[in-house]
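Hey, resending since the last one bounced:
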Amino acid sequence: MKKLKYTPLFIFLIISTFCFNQNVAPFLDFNNYFKSFENDNFRTIEIQQIEEFKAGDELVAYIDNRGNLRVYDGKERKDISNLNVEYKISDHLMAYKIGPTLNLWDEGKLKTLTYFARNYVVMDSIIVYEDTRFNTINVYWNKKTYPLFTSTGDLQMPTAIGDNIIAFKDNGDLYKIFWNGEIFDVGVWSGNIEFKAGCDVICFNDPTTRTFTLFQNREFIDIEGQFMPSYKAGRGFIAYEDLNGNLWHYQNEELMELSNFSSNQWNVKDDMIIWYENSYAFAFANNNKYQTSTFIPQDYKIKNKIFAFRNIMGGVSALIDGKIIELTNQANAEYEIYGNLILLKLFNNNILVYKDGKKFQN
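The structure tokens again:
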């Protein structure tokens, strides 16, 4: 089933541990107060109405009523800038741009990455950006900055950017992978390769060996002996559809068939795989397969180990810890996932939070 293409001289395995910390779960209440659910309580962040906010599991960045950029991480509120800013956020990091100057917030500390920034991407534990002064593509990871390559022409952002892993092509058409502070050579091709990057894993069709290949833990592993038509990457695993339309899951050297029904739609995010078979919806999480509904959800959201979806009544249900939980049947309720909880905005901006089997209302 698999063949090692590259074996390092020593085995060095790093296990990335993701604790789904939920420091903040922000929302605007019926008074337009800006609040957060944290430590099983509702807390007010701002009384005056804010302009907008963007949130991850561990922090929320927002523009207050005076146009100032602020960050709140469940511990303290920090003023970032009173200038016109562009900002992006992940579960753990925030990057903000004032003119061409790119800065970041990381665990309460501020740092300038470059005074000559252009495009940039913020993921769970990395920030990838263009530095036009030196014509380089750089990555910020683990509180350090690493140059990926210097371009002799126009800069191009990497081919695939995951939570903590990157696939990119340098000036000599040499494809490379950045992971754990190191760069690994993949191969030289004049055409484009479609990489799919998750967390700690990247998969792709290898033009040299004509195989479907996985990169993980400094190794390149052939998963299939021919190209696969569709594939995606999650946290430490990959999923792919073979030439017969069968859906597969690969993790920890184990290959599992999820569906042989030629699924018409499927998706991967964080720790979850979801797919549809005719009018049935399924999910795969915690090494188990679940039928989540006998209909195709109108909309859904996946984050960490939660699959939340629009139920048949127009409300919201979710797959949590192997159980389907009916959260509300109120039609058109808005919902977001933060860490291991779901926050719902009901009629008249009433807030309902579901966490660890309990419901909390603001």
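Confidence is low (pLDDT under 50) at residues 1-19.

Sorry for the duplicate.
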